[in-house]
Amino acid sequence: MERSLERLREDTRRFVKNIFSKYYSSLASTFIEEPPRISGREFGFNLFDKGIVRHISFKSRDDLLEYLKANSPSDCYYSSAFYMNPSASMDGKGWIGAELTFDIDADHIHTDCKAEHDRWVCTSCRYEEDGDIPERCPNCGGDKLEERVWFCERCLLAARRETMKLIEILSSEFGVEEDNMTIYFSGHRGFHIHVSGEVEGLDQNSRREIADYLLGVGSDPSVYFERMIAAMDAGGAKLRILRAIYDLLSSASPEDLKAIGLKRSFIESIVEDRDRILGRMLEGGFDRFAREVGLTSIRKLIAKAVEYSSVKIDSVVTLDIHRLIRLPGSLHGKTGLMKSRVGSSLESLEGYDPLSEATPFRDFRDHVKLYVYSAPKFRIEDESYGPFEGEEVSLPLQPALLLLCKGVAYISG
Ligand SMILES: [Zn+2]
Ligand SMILES: [Zn+2]
């Protein structure tokens, strides 16, 4: 049993590698987007046979494409930094500057769907279950357990909402111009934003401040309360938080307000006379409004508004000035989808569907036979697949590749 599973895994790995290799020898030249100042960048790759390699550099786009063709990596990365000597060891690289990058991943956002589609699996006997990974498999006692995180449309929508918030803040509070901002789908559960221009010279501390500001770290509600008393005409985060309070009060049901922990008398007055209370807030009488509501309630309200108006970025990515980020146009080893360019504006993101646009194999109509252990229902373009549970299926390449890369299926044909 153990040996034949090993064999199936090996066949599957070889099949996936072969598809990636086809991609990098033909399609990739259309989709790969090399970073500006390519000769100053460090590249790193995850290779199917050798694992991670890094400290590699290329003189030109052609050099890069040639390497990809020869090695067909499962994942490709480059440094957001540009260096004097990108292939030297870390101390000898000579840091010049780095784009400011943001990673928004459904991993960091609470969504109810995770309980439905994230599970763990025992790689020895394939037993699987929802929820947290135990020490040992309850079925065979083995300790080789792996997480199986799936991503669904709700995860992608949640990531997109966060990304939209981030774009709005970057442009209205940091003054980042559209020309200096590019939005990408990550190839898995989220989005990346690359910002170039003046920000390239920022050191790690300044980047940390930006990350903290976006995450709402240090936004102690009581401090905010003091500062916000007269802040209706102030810009930036304060105005954003006030707006969030306004939104909360305009749309929240009495149950939502109760869940925030507000006083019953205040909830009653909101329910009875929402317009008057909101009107008073707008007229600049936040001070009187706040005192009327009561200090405890208003703090809870502000805390909720800070949470609601902050952006769930992965701060490690933003503050690490030597970070390697995924190469646009390359395939994601866990999905077979591309990291692909969305655009530079909110509108471009609003109209973007990763499951139709990050799918380089969508025109391959040949079917692949595979055995699927377990997969929820999912969509590629307009076509739905699954749910599958311990069955043999025949699928077009793109959805088949997704299941194989996710590790929930093996090649059977
Ligand atoms: Zn087991
Ligand atoms: Zn989901």
Structural class: alpha+beta
Helix content: 40-55%
Number of strands: 18
Q: Beta-strand percentage?
A: 15-25%
CATH homologous superfamily (4th level) name of the largest domain: DNA primase, PRIM domain
- Stretches where pLDDT is under 50 for at least 5 consecutive residues are 222-233
Q: For the CA atoms, what is the radius of gyration?
A: 25 Å
Q: Shape from CA axes?
A: globular
Q: How far apart lie the N and C ends? A: 19 Å
CATH architectural designation of the largest domain: Alpha-Beta Complex
What molecules are bound to this protein? zinc ion
CATH topology of the largest domain: DNA primase, PRIM domain
Q: The biggest beta sheet, please?
A: 4 strands, antiparallel
Ordered list of secondary-structure elements with their pairings:
Layout: H1 2-31, E1 43-47, E2 51-56, H2 61-71, E3 75-79, E4 81-83, E5 95-98, E6 100-105, H3 114-117, E7 119-122, E8 128-130, E9 145-148, H4 153-172, E10 181-185, E11 190-195, H5 204-215, H6 221-228, H7 236-251, H8 254-260, H9 264-282, H10 286-293, H11 295-309, H12 315-319, E12 324-326, E13 340-343, H13 346-350, H14 354-357, E14 367-375, E15 378-380, E16 383-385, E17 388-396, H15 397-405, E18 409-411
Antiparallel strand pairs: 1-2, 1-3, 3-12, 4-5, 6-11, 7-8, 7-9, 10-11, 10-13, 14-17, 14-18, 15-16
Helix pairs in contact: 1-2, 6-11, 7-11
